Amino acid sequence: MSELELVSVTKTYGDIIAVNNIDHKFVSGTYSCLLGPSGCGKSSTLRMIAGHEIVTEGEITLGGTNITSLPPASRGTAMMFQNYALFPHLSVVDNVAFSQKMQGIGKDARRSRAMELLELVHMEEYADRIPDQLSGGQQQRVALARSLITEPSILLLDEPLSALDPFLRIKMRLELKKLQRQLGISFIHVTHSQDEALALADDIIVMNNAVIEQSGPPKEVFNEPRSEFVAKFIGGHNVVHTDQGKIAVRTDRIDVKKRKTKKTVSATVRDVEFLGSTINIALSSDEKDELVAAIPDSVFFNQPVEIGDTVFLDWKTEDAHLLAE
Ligand code: ADP
Ligand code: MG
């Protein structure tokens, strides 16, 4: 199969180290998300995989073949660009068929293949329009069909949903996942959205400052963040300073009590936010940690707290994860 492996891959632009000696294996047929804040090196990593950027040091192999220096079209990968990059003067079907035209494939053959791909992304009715006559979401489907016509074993997507409105973003997210399952090829999707990565990925690769901080299935990365950065970036966590070091505790795993028990952290209520089914209580601990407790509404209204109250925080031992320094 076509496992993709990055071996000690580095990318520098002059003095800037965009990607610093990273190693990763992308299991074939999986949906992977490269997740991290702006500037952490996600796009550089993706572009090196695509062959649009020269690898400064290290190696990229696909199915055991060294592809580090191969041109983009000879790698078995395809890239869908953020701005879709459709040809404005070509019809939808001709946009999709373009790479096959370049390969010298006959008009009927390439059009019928392009129509198959347009069906796959539910755009067959729009085959004769030009890109200007389509919405952003529709243009994206065409771009998707165009990148899939080369039958890549890996599809690379750089922030593919960021230009869409929130409603469409969630709809397309489901469709991308469905498409990946249907095709059985690998998708590598760059995003800075935790929600997107958690919802889509079989594997999340969290990047920060040009390195991989942690990788693994969403459930593992979310429940067992290894570092303070991952705990904070993935969201839904508190980082609490204790006598034994820094720990991460999920916001929905913190109990807020009015009375002190044995093992508790005392804190002051800073804010109470009603979110419907949960109430978010913002707290400052005596150790100066800014914390959030997400409490089910029924529990909260049973024993409400107010801004300024002193409270005591507790959690189950198994819900606390020691973080690396
Ligand atoms: P991300 O996609 O995570 O936002 P990038 O891979 O685009 O991050 O960028 C990583 C770092 O490399 C950033 O500091 C960015 O400014 C720098 N960088 C990216 N592309 C170039 C380039 N073509 N020339 C110089 N610096 C670049
Ligand atoms: Mg980027």
Summarize the structure.
This protein is α+β, with helices and mostly antiparallel strands. Helices cover 28% and strands 34% of the residues.
Topology:
Layout: E1 4-13, E2 16-26, E3 31-35, H1 42-50, E4 57-62, E5 65-66, E6 77-80, H2 92-102, H3 107-120, H4 136-148, E7 154-158, H5 166-183, E8 186-191, H6 194-200, E9 203-208, E10 211-216, H7 218-223, H8 228-234, E11 237-242, E12 245-250, E13 255-257, E14 265-274, E15 278-285, E16 290-296, H9 297-302, E17 310-314, E18 320-322
Helix pairs in contact: 2-3, 2-4, 3-4
The protein binds adenosine-5'-diphosphate and magnesium ion.
Magnesium ion (MG) binds next to helix 1.
Tag the structure with descriptive keywords:
325 residues, 2 domains, binds magnesium ion, 34% strand, OB fold (Dihydrolipoamide Acetyltransferase, E2P), alpha+beta, six-stranded mixed sheet, binds adenosine-5'-diphosphate, five-stranded antiparallel sheet, Rossmann fold
Q: Can you describe this structure?
A:
The chain has 325 residues and is α+β, with helices and mostly antiparallel strands. The chain has 2 domains: 4-223, Rossmann fold (3-Layer(aba) Sandwich), CATH 3.40.50; 238-322, OB fold (Dihydrolipoamide Acetyltransferase, E2P) (Beta Barrel), CATH 2.40.50.140. Helices cover 28% and strands 34% of the residues. The protein has 9 helices and 18 strands. The chain has helices at 42-50, 92-102, 107-120, 136-148, 166-183, 194-200, 218-223, 228-234, 297-302, and strands at 4-13, 16-26, 31-35, 57-62, 65-66, 77-80, 154-158, 186-191, 203-208, 211-216, 237-242, 245-250, 255-257, 265-274, 278-285, 290-296, 310-314, 320-322. A 6-stranded mixed beta sheet has the order 6-7-8-3-9-10, sandwiched between helices. It has a 5-stranded antiparallel beta sheet with strand order 13-17-14-15-16. Strand 7 (154-158), helix 5 and strand 8 form a beta-alpha-beta unit. The longest helix is centred in the middle third of the chain and has 18 residues, at 166-183. It is elongated, with a radius of gyration of 24 Å. The protein starts with a strand and ends with a strand. The mean pLDDT is 94. The chain binds adenosine-5'-diphosphate and magnesium ion (MG). The site of magnesium ion (MG) has 3 residues, from helix 1.
